[in-house]
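job 3f2a | input accepted
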Amino acid sequence: MNKKREVTIYDIARELNVSPSTVSRALKDHHSIGKKTKKAVLKLAEERGYQPNIIASSLRSNKTNTIGIITSWINRPFISSLISGVEMAANKSGFNVIISQSHDSYENEVANAKTLYGSRIEGLVVSLAMETTNYDHFQKFLKKNIPVVFVDRVPDDLNTTKVVINNYESGFKATEHLIEQGCKRIAHIGGVRHRNVYSERMNGYVAALKKHGLEVDSNLIVESDRLSSEEGYRIAEYLINLDARPDGVFSANDTAAVSFIKYAKSVGVNVPEDIAVIGFNNDPISTIIDPALSTVSHPAFEMGKLVAAQVLNQGRLPSELIQAQTIMLETELIIRESTLREKH
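job 3f2a | predicted structure (344 res):
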């Protein structure tokens, strides 16, 4: 099937018997073009299905007014809220957003970075894949002074701006809440430890146990490279079938925590009476599961707005004036039925 030829400003100019530059200025609502001419140009452009060649325009101006996002899974509530925040801030400044997801794969993340670089984006927002430990694929952006700002999952050894939450304090608060509910043998379901968010949440968990004189048992600390629903079931089966099973669980995300509750109920283990469970992120599913899941709020939308603002601000500054900084937002403990036990 032959593709229909694109309508150009030259075609519109020929039909209206005006110059191509007049059509171009009319489409841009330039003050030098009269209302009558503008109206005629816009009407014919609409009728002929004219589309501006954004790529050609960006090559001429060296501006695409586009920023890219690389993130893990866009179908996760935290990520979708984060992206919404980025889009709102970018759109307000006249920028478009190109979204890509790595599916937590390093290879996908590298491919995403290559594609976005080829798209001539003017800034990049990144939340790292679980697998990523090498960051060379971001160097070409930095060498060309294209702002790269990391959010949530960030690298420890790249001198760039980062927007994060206080994961250590959040992990500490979540674990201490379980201790205050009478839990003495608390398990932790975490992500891979080279990823900052999971190592810091685990460190907060360990610190809370030590503060209250409780044992740190390595058998109760389980690491997952996905923290998916399926992983939540697998880990729940392992923990619940231990000879000395836990009486409390702190999960580094709500997805695994909800699966833990489902599995526990399926084998006759009561939550929170037998095992109290707390998650992380305050995903919508945390209020749907029965019992409702205690969790830690994650200000995803605010983080998205902040990270976009950082990218846009850095794009306006000479490279020598850009200073790398870490912006940390606070979280809030949200207590629901999954941890509220009878007072001991």
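job 3f2a | The chain has three domains: 9-52, 64-164+300-329, 167-298+333-339.
job 3f2a | closed
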